[in-house]
Amino acid sequence: MSNNNSQFPQWEVFIQEKSGSAFEHAGSVHATDKKMALQNARDIYTRRNEGRALWVVMTDNIASTTRDDEEEFFDPSEDKIYRTPNFYKMPAGTTNL
Amino acid sequence: MNTKEALYNFCLRLADNNIVLGQRLAEWCSRGPILEEDLAMTNISLDLFGEAESMYEYATTLVNNNSTADHLAFLRSEREYFNNLLVEQPNGDFAQTMMKQVLFSAFAKHLYEALCNSNDETLKGLAAKALKETKYHLRHSSEWIIRFGNGTEESMRRTQFALNELWRFTDDMFVMNEVDEELISMGISFNLNDIQAKWKFTISEIFAEANLQMPEATNIIKGGSKGIHTEHLGHLLCEMQYLQRAHPGATW
Fold it and tell me: Which CATH number fits domain A10-83: 3.20.20.70, 3.30.565.10, 3.40.50.300, 3.10.20.520?
């Protein structure tokens, strides 16, 4: 997340594999601005036909949870299996709901 | 010169431009200013090698001498290469490399656009494919030139220097000979004077945005399409052709 003087700022790269699908995080690049970030992302992450669209966002603009947040953010959901729809009976003959 | 011979020569000219510039860009491999740019330059290099290969392949179908694309790339000497003088120039610093790329890619873009209307179906197809790649090369290199021109005093100075140094090789791209005469008469290729006017417009816009001054045309050198080159091409070919010359027919 740091921007030291020897590197351009860091950007996170998201690729959409095909039209309509979700953008997925692919990795990061260094660039001075949006244009350069898109071009660098294109050269590094899509040169083997991995995608049809790209997003880049400056790493500093991403808000992230930290390791310290883990307990209160995620642990409470561990013992609440009733929040998942595991207890419905599937109607006969249905393969997907 | 009949049409086939002219087309053969023309394909070599296109392919030689691509392979020589591709080889120059490959020299940057592992030496780029940043990792991302290292990859970008070798990416462009690989695009150019691909374009060269398909143009050599096509050339081999136009003559009956059992030559292959590899023969054309690795077993012709510098006097048999028809690339423009611009692309064989040494890389210099990063500004010079990008300047060379802008000057060439703008030319290639307008040439391929014209060739998309060629009467020769294969050439038309090759141009359409190469055009997509070339537009990206032009975008990438012109972005850098504009950035440098609006950057620091040093980046501005180096970029203007690059333009001044390379300018005298640009007229060479638009020289026409009997090859062009024949192909223009058949509707296969087009008048390079028209391409030059479009090229000039494109690069003038880029250089205006980069605050660069158009240099005076002095000490103009031409000769690429006749096989007359600057001293740099021989050295480049020595390195590029070494393996096939030392171990004829080697494959891997």
Answer: 3.10.20.520
